[in-house]
Write a structure and sequence with these properties.
The complex is a heterodimer of chains A (about 110) and B (about 120). In chain A, about 0% of the residues lie in helices and about 55% in strands. Chain A has strands at about 5, 10-15, 20-25, 30-40, 45-50, 55-60, 60-65, 70-75, 85-95, 105, 110-114. In chain A, the strands form 2 sheets. In chain A, strands 2, 4, 5, 9, 10 and 11 form a 6-stranded mixed sheet that branches. A 5-stranded antiparallel sheet of chain A has the order 1-3-8-7-6, with no helix packed on it. In chain A, a hairpin with a 4-residue loop joins strand 7 and strand 8 (about 70-75). Chain A is globular and about 45 Å long. Chain B has strands at about 5, 10-15, 20-25, 30-35, 45-50, 55, 65-70, 75-80, 90-95, 105, 110-115. In chain B, a hairpin with a 6-residue loop joins strand 7 and strand 8. The radius of gyration of chain B is 13 Å and the shape is globular. Classes of the chains: A mainly beta (about 110), B mainly beta (about 120). The interface between A and B is medium-sized, with 26 and 25 residues.
Chain lengths: ~110, ~120
């Protein structure tokens, strides 16, 4: 039973355009959501997060949107740059109920075309 | 600040052999996690420590996997005996405090191949 789902294994976007990566979750106890970026042969690197008390968080070119009623979040990258080509993982945790290890989706491979 | 250190980077063993991985978290980070990432999947939590105590090991295959965090700093993850399906990248991560709104910081992982 996958509690965090990223339904697009890959996404190709032209340089300078907007990249939109989507993530759905099923566990209503999740209250903290993160996006990680991963290059080959490296560990995941934290990108941006959002708490369930917010519906938007922005950091430079990266914005995360959270729709709690739809159990959906998205990551927007504007403008997309060649260095953004990587695998992006959506992750979630329940902060108050005990252990807070992250549950990850399978990832979306973002390819930025020149 | 130095990141999460893991060793070795790569390990190749035969099935039924044993293997151990080492992790040194970011200085001062009380919470430490071990994740398993199989090719094409997202990382899956194996075990979480708070200082030297286990917080969650519900997904750790305890018949063959064990982990310890003596003195609340470094940690080792052991597999004995290894199976073919254990081939994966083993990631260690740390965080300053449990239940805090702060991200996990990952090491570069150990890639295990079981033949």
């Amino acid at each position: 039973d996958q509690q965090v789902k990223q339904n697009s294994p890959s996404l190709s976007v032209q340089e300078g355009r907007i990249s939109i990566l989507n993530c759905d979750y099923t566990n209503s106890m999740f209250d903290y959501f993160l996006w990680y970026k991963k290059y080959p042969a490296e560990g995941p690197t934290f990108l941006i997060s959002i708490s369930s008390i917010k519906d938007k968080n922005e950091d430079g070119r990266f914005t995360v949107f959270l729709n709690k009623s739809a159990k959906h979040l998205s990551l927007h990258i504007v403008p997309s740059q060649p260095g953004d080509s990587a695998v992006y993982f959506c992750a979630a945790s329940a902060q108050g109920g005990g252990a807070d290890g992250l549950t990850f989706g399978k990832g979306t491979h973002l390819i930025i075309q020149p | 600040e130095a990141g999460v250190a893991q060793s070795p980077r790569y390990k190749i063993i035969e099935k039924r052999q044993s293997v151990a991985f080492w992790c040194n978290p970011i200085s001062g980070h009380a919470t430490l996690y071990w994740y398993q990432q199989i090719l094409g999947q997202g990382p899956k939590l194996l075990i979480q420590f708070q200082n030297n105590g286990v917080v969650d090991d519900s997904q750790l295959p305890k018949d063959r996997f064990s982990a310890e965090r003596l003195k609340g700093v470094d940690s080792t993850l052991k597999i004995q005996p290894a199976k073919l399906e254990d081939s994966a990248v083993y990631l260690c991560a740390s965080k300053a405090r449990v239940y805090s709104d702060s991200p996990l910081h990952f090491g570069n992982g150990t890639r295990l191949t079981v033949t």
